[in-house]
Specification:
Blueprint: H1 4-9, H2 17-24, H3 26-29, H4 37-53, H5 58-71, E1 80-82, E2 85-87, E3 91-93, E4 114-120, E5 133-136, E6 141-144, H6 153-162, E7 174-179, H7 190-201, E8 207-211, H8 226-237, E9 245-249, H9 255-267, E10 272-275, E11 303-306, H10 310-324, E12 330-333, H11 339-347, E13 352-355, H12 357-362, H13 366-381
Parallel strand pairs: 3-4, 3-13, 4-7, 7-8, 8-9, 9-10, 10-12, 12-13
Antiparallel strand pairs: 1-2, 5-6, 6-11
């Protein structure tokens, strides 16, 4: 995202936030080289974190209200209730951007109906060596091997408490917390590691996500195996005050593994499944070279996100819906960068969608553009509300 100063400048002039983003940030995102991707994100989050802490100060409040006026689209037809949470709209910020929950109090100002914070681990982690985040500008994609860098569950709780957020269920945007395994914790002890984090953060979460699908923590994806995942989920469900619990899966699973997770989620009463995380597959870009390292994607570690992931993310979502049926809520993520792609994911069975890489490239206007596109589809198909569109199979109509 743009630096918050750039984003908020649109409230003081006739120039829109999206135009300012395109003018000042767009050139930085148009090439692989140039400004370091992680450094730019950290600069942005520092500014957003200060804005969230001071969001009640008159000047900051006024700027945030102006931002919200440009980017929010309020429409009762876009509201929906899932797993005990009331969503103002179905478009959310995916996990991985606000890892330490520093901007938890202001994501609704960007038009989001919900935001997923984290990934948070029990132990503080520096993550993998830099460079670890790379732009693939021509493909509107990114490669990351961050390694769950975060301040740890106890520090994240203090960060959330400092922001004095409304209680869960009373917030302008639903807040989920995405949990991962500490790198130093063995797979055998993973359930206790996740449980320690959830016990600390549960009182502040509208929902929680079990992330067993990042490709950047050794062995983590083994926890997607049905027996191990069931054991993990059962451990977390026993915690007092456990919030609605979802699981996030990888795009690289075989069909039988996807089917097993769908059945397990239904049998264990999980609140939903998030599909998908980043991919270890290079999706036809094996020989694409990174400007920063000179090596091809086939030679580089990390997960691929953005537009190249779009097709596989849709396939996994459709497989989940076919196996689990309509009762299990699904959240679609991966390669969503336009209203048409968001509608396609909802029409295929996603109740909610999440943005990350597409939001970075397209800018803050992507959220209202998607919401307006969804409103238009409801109109042209004669649907009363967004819930009626979930799994409807209807095509995008211009």
């Amino acid at each position: 995202m743009a630096e918050v100063g750039v984003a908020m400048a649109g409230t003081a002039t006739e120039t829109s936030t999206g135009a300012l983003y395109g003018r000042f940030v767009g050139p930085l995102l148009s090439t692989d080289a140039g400004s370091d991707a992680e450094q730019l994100s950290q600069l942005t989050l520092t500014a957003l974190g200060q804005a969230s802490l001071r969001r009640h100060w008159p000047l900051v409040s006024g700027a945030l209200e102006g931002l919200a006026g440009q980017l929010q689209r309020r429409d009762p037809r876009l509201e929906l209730s899932l797993f005990g949470c009331r969503f103002a709209n179905p478009v959310g910020l995916a996990a991985g951007f606000d890892k330490n929950a520093v901007a938890a109090g202001i994501w609704h100002c960007f038009g989001f109906g919900f935001a997923e914070l984290g990934t948070v681990t029990w132990q503080p982690q520096a993550g993998n060596p830099r460079p670890r985040l790379f732009r693939l500008a021509a493909e509107r994609a990114a490669l990351n091997r961050m390694g769950f860098n975060n301040s740890g569950a106890q520090a994240v709780r203090r960060t959330l408490e400092r922001q004095q957020l409304p209680s869960p269920g009373q917030r302008p945007a639903v807040l989920g917390i995405n949990l991962g395994k500490s790198k130093l914790t063995s797979l055998e002890l993973a359930p206790d590691d996740y449980a320690a984090s959830l016990e600390v953060l549960a009182p502040l979460a509208d929902y929680a996500v079990v992330n067993v699908s990042s490709p950047n923590t050794p062995g983590l994806r083994d926890l997607q195996e049905e027996t191990l995942l069931r054991r993990l989920v059962e451990r977390l469900r026993r915690l007092p005050g456990c919030p609605p619990l979802l699981v996030k899966i990888a795009p690289d699973l075989e069909d039988d593994a996807i089917d097993a997770i769908a059945r397990m989620a239904y049998e264990e009463g999980l609140a939903g499944v998030i599909a998908v995380n980043t991919s270890l597959s290079r999706l036809g870009l094996e020989q694409r070279r990174l400007a920063q390292t000179g090596r091809t994607l086939a030679e580089e570690a990390g997960g691929l996100s953005g537009a190249p992931l779009r097709g596989r993310a849709l396939e996994v979502l459709r497989r989940l819906r076919a196996t689990a049926g309509p009762a299990l809520p699904l959240i679609g993520v991966g390669g969503i960068d336009s209203p048409q792609v968001a509608w396609e994911r909802i029409s295929a069975g996603a109740s909610l969608v999440q943005l990350y890489t597409g939001w970075i490239y397209e800018g803050p206007d992507l959220v209202p553009r998607i919401l307006e596109g969804l409103q238009h589809q409801l109109d042209v198909h004669g649907l009363p509300h967004i819930g009626a569109a979930v799994g409807c199979g209807l095509p995008w109509q211009a």
